[in-house]
Design a protein that fits this description.
The protein has 242 residues and is an alpha/beta fold. It has eight helices and six strands, in the order βααβαβαβαααββα. The chain binds 3-methylbut-3-enyl trihydrogen diphosphate (2 copies) and magnesium ion. The site of one 3-methylbut-3-enyl trihydrogen diphosphate has 11 residues, from strand 2.
């Protein structure tokens, strides 16, 4: 079914996928069942993004803080990542999707890192949509690793100290893990929680936010489309007077 063309489509939509555990509990099932169902929502949102002309779709799939969950749940989530990437990659590639993972990859298992590398290499030249999974990510981690990279560069190149010290915001952004990716225009959080949970702290400085009670496994194409419609009505002023 061809989608109606929309006005004022956000370039980058980012989703804080929350509520999988509650979705499963409501059905008397284990939390992991909610994560399985959540993969279906990711698939639906990728399709909806392509259909509606969104160029970047990102999802917060696992925070640095999520490593503190019970080992059993962490293991199940990591196994699900590998399985979902392997299962979805052919289709993503044939639909022209460029796949990326951003986060503290040093904490991921070698098997998962191998799958990620293979998927990223394979889809690197695709242009229909960039689909980013934020995995083992946190906003504070990102800003800290950027500052460390910058400090090391200054230490290694004392002759560039002055140039580096005069660096502005855009110069610093080159060190963030998201370098080259436009800041999210719209950040959606599901499940009725009204917080960022250490997500894109720097990059979300001027994002529009949408908090919805819908649990992530229930967030599908109609909900995605409705989020785009809400965004289209927002007035972004960036501190200026209009
Ligand atoms: C989101 O659902 C998935 C991850 C954070 C990995 P949750 O697992 O946080 O589900 P709730 O919030 O406990 O319902
Ligand atoms: C936020 O969800 C992180 C992700 C969606 C990956 P959480 O369920 O971990 O957040 P809190 O603990 O409720 O803030
Ligand atoms: Mg949660």
């Amino acid at each position: 079914m061809a989608a109606e063309p929309m006005n004022n489509v956000p370039v980058h939509v980012s989703m804080i996928m929350d509520g999988n555990g509650r979705w499963a509990r409501e059905r008397g099932k284990e939390r992991v069942y909610g994560h399985f169902e959540g993969v279906e929502s990711v698939r639906a949102c990728v399709e909806a993004a392509v259909e509606n002309g969104v160029k970047y779709l990102s999802i917060y799939a696992f925070s640095e803080e999520n490593w503190n969950r019970p080992q059993e749940e962490v293991d199940a989530l990591m196994a699900l990542m590998v399985k979902a990437m392997e299962a979805e990659m052919d289709k993503l590639h044939s639909n022209g999707v460029r796949f990326m993972v951003i986060g503290n990859r040093a904490r991921l298992a070698p098997e998962l890192n191998e799958v990620i590398d293979a998927c990223m290499a394979r889809t690197a030249a695709n242009t229909a949509l960039t689909f980013i999974i934020f995995l083992s990510y946190s906003g504070k981690w990102d800003i800290l690793q950027a500052a460390k990279k910058m400090a090391l560069e200054i230490a290694d190149h004392p002759e560039r100290r002055e140039e580096m010290m005069s660096m502005g915001v855009e110069g610093f952004e080159r060190y963030l893990a998201t370098a080259g990716i436009p800041d999210p225009d719209l950040i959606v959080r599901t499940s009725g929680e009204n917080r960022l949970s250490n997500y894109l702290l720097w990059q979300g400085a001027y994002s529009e936010f949408l908090f919805t009670d819908t649990l992530w496994p229930d967030f599908r194409k109609p909900e995605f489309k409705a989020a785009l419609e809400t965004y289209a009505k927002r007035d972004r002023r960036y501190g200026k007077v209009k």
